[in-house]
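Bumping with the actual sequence this time:
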Amino acid sequence: MLFADAVRTGAVALSSPGVVVLVVFLLLYLGVVLPAVWSRRSQRRHAAARVLELILGQLLLVLRVLAGLLRR
């Protein structure tokens, strides 16, 4: 296998939906959830908690819409 083929195959594997979901989850977890829980600064904790509330609210809305579409 040529190097270019190996790189191309690796790039396709990294763009699979499961990898994308995992990367987004890790970024949200590291950027929002951990500061909301473990930050010593209350201002940072409150800001991260507000962002987490917004994200979870939008996720719940999307899930309700999807559930409604699946019932039809």
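The tokens above came from a reply further down the thread. The first helix runs from residue 3 to 14.
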